Please model this.
Amino acid sequence: MAGPLTARPARRPAIAGLGITEMGRVYGRSAEDFAAEAVRLAVADAGLSLADVDGMLTNTGLTGGMGLGLQRRLQLRDLRLSSEIQAYGASAGAMVSYASMAVQAGMAETVVCVFADAPLTEGRRSSAAYAGRRAPVGFDALLPAAGLTSVNALYALAARRHMETYGTTSEQLGAIAVAQRQWAAKNPRAQLRDPITLDDHQNSRWIAEPLRLLDCCLVSNGGVAVVVTTAERAAHLPKPPVHVRGWAQSHPGYPEHRDSELGLRSGAAQSGPAALKMAGLSIADVTVAELYDCYTFTALLSLEDYGFCEKGEGGPFAASGALAPGGGRLAVNTGGGQLSSYYMWGMTPLSEAVIQARGKGGERQAPANDVVLVSGNGGILDHHSTLVLSPHADND
Model:
């Protein structure tokens, strides 16, 4: 695949704007309301106007209600690129990669990528946010008939397999939750900032064994958008450009029989090396990792499959304290991730990556931000995207 290294330096892609709405239990607004605000914020952050936008990619959460109609809402005219993208939690990485290819090829000059969702309803518990989906029929009903009635249960199945295979423990998963809460305490936008201990994790209730409440991500209303343009244009805008150095996707397609690698290997194993190769870098060059963490287990599996530790060593790696602030040379999920900051699918790791690459993380800023790896994960580990970002245009 032709990446930025093969493109003219002026046409290489860069993120020039970031827009984040109010996040969390924000009621009375639709997903499209959040999306429109996020786009306006991102465009203003880039020092541009809506009239400068000639491309838009949208991704809505499971509650829907936001898509191509956003163009009419924002009164955007004569777009050269417009599409809805859906790879669930891998969508943010996919949108940025498509936007990058579009500006690199000259198909568009300024592309907005936006995610928004509003699953929370005032007076209802977070657990009800994604309830009420239509019951499957036919062969699709076999999993629920076996007791796998929710996404939580399916991720629990994957985590249990990793535990049985490699000896991973609940306490090791808890170390991830504790470390990320320490990062979240430094993030003013985080929904949960109070410190937690490993005992708090072990005493939190089961959601689907072996996953406890503190192994699971938040539910949030809100929206996030980024502006992708050329490096040449970004260089003349007010905010420091974040160069998109590499991208890749992987869709493992786990078979539902004994050859499946569900729980043992994720799409990070394929998309990570591919994205780094495009960037002309290796995993040893990565200084910040913003990993998709819908569950603690997802972060652990990604650490292994990207090669930050050996396969099967994710548990001991997490328990060593390497993921906490000041824990080592690699800074991981510096905003608190989806476990403690906010849940905007792949836009959670992407937004924090942009902040870190700009050097604007404040108290939580990583000491080295030369290479920032961003992961996205969708479905039940079905879809994966990887981005490689940097404040530097090349390796010089």
